[in-house]
Amino acid sequence: MATKKKIDANRLNLKDQVVSINRVTKVVKGGKNMSFAALVVIGDPAEGVVGYGSGKAKEVPQAIRKGIEAAKKNLFKINLTDTSIPHQVLGHYGAGQVMLKPAPEGTGVIAGGTVRAVMTSVGVQNVLTKSLGTKNPHNVIKATFDALTQLRNKAEVAALRGKAEEEL
């Protein structure tokens, strides 16, 4: 299971990727107020650390910057094998479901845009994914993170079962 202890964002080599930008218009007495909402994923592929955040502002660059700052406060360490994930998993959030399946070397990242951003940010090179249900990027990202936090490595499974790692 992924650990949710505080991860220092300053010591990591984080790369950011904008998943979606949404223009929001609020109708008020004096006219229309326009603002932008940005959904951003950041990660360090070498460390297996990834996070997401949302930022809102009157201009796009400020919204992206706020999203990056929010993502730095929401980092997860993910259990991975060398180039893929350890086992198949299904993540849920709202009406969204994301299935992640390990793939052999040379397969690449088979994923839609939202899930692909998360997979490349965390450093997974070979994975098969399928997004089921909603296409809302916010729910798809949260379902993907739910799936990633369910991943366990051999040592954790062996400890849960009370066996040695070689017995599995």
TrEMBL record:
<dbReference type="GO" id="GO:0003735">
    <property type="term" value="F:structural constituent of ribosome"/>
</dbReference>
<dbReference type="GO" id="GO:0019843">
    <property type="term" value="F:rRNA binding"/>
</dbReference>
<keyword id="KW-0687">Ribonucleoprotein</keyword>
<dbReference type="InterPro" id="IPR014721">
    <property type="entry name" value="Ribsml_uS5_D2-typ_fold_subgr"/>
</dbReference>
<dbReference type="GO" id="GO:0006412">
    <property type="term" value="P:translation"/>
</dbReference>
<dbReference type="InterPro" id="IPR005324">
    <property type="entry name" value="Ribosomal_uS5_C"/>
</dbReference>
<comment type="function">
    <text>With S4 and S12 plays an important role in translational accuracy.</text>
</comment>
<dbReference type="InterPro" id="IPR018192">
    <property type="entry name" value="Ribosomal_uS5_N_CS"/>
</dbReference>
<dbReference type="InterPro" id="IPR005712">
    <property type="entry name" value="Ribosomal_uS5_bac-type"/>
</dbReference>
<dbReference type="InterPro" id="IPR000851">
    <property type="entry name" value="Ribosomal_uS5"/>
</dbReference>
<dbReference type="GO" id="GO:0005737">
    <property type="term" value="C:cytoplasm"/>
</dbReference>
<comment type="function">
    <text>Located at the back of the 30S subunit body where it stabilizes the conformation of the head with respect to the body.</text>
</comment>
<dbReference type="GO" id="GO:0042254">
    <property type="term" value="P:ribosome biogenesis"/>
</dbReference>
<dbReference type="InterPro" id="IPR020568">
    <property type="entry name" value="Ribosomal_Su5_D2-typ_SF"/>
</dbReference>
<keyword id="KW-0689">Ribosomal protein</keyword>
<keyword id="KW-0694">RNA-binding</keyword>
<comment type="similarity">
    <text>Belongs to the universal ribosomal protein uS5 family.</text>
</comment>
<dbReference type="Pfam" id="PF03719">
    <property type="entry name" value="Ribosomal_S5_C"/>
</dbReference>
<dbReference type="Pfam" id="PF00333">
    <property type="entry name" value="Ribosomal_S5"/>
</dbReference>
<feature type="domain" description="S5 DRBM">
    <location>
        <begin position="14"/>
        <end position="78"/>
    </location>
</feature>
<keyword id="KW-0699">rRNA-binding</keyword>
<dbReference type="InterPro" id="IPR013810">
    <property type="entry name" value="Ribosomal_uS5_N"/>
</dbReference>
<comment type="subunit">
    <text>Part of the 30S ribosomal subunit. Contacts proteins S4 and S8.</text>
</comment>
<dbReference type="GO" id="GO:0015935">
    <property type="term" value="C:small ribosomal subunit"/>
</dbReference>
<protein>
    <recommendedName>
        <fullName>Small ribosomal subunit protein uS5</fullName>
    </recommendedName>
</protein>
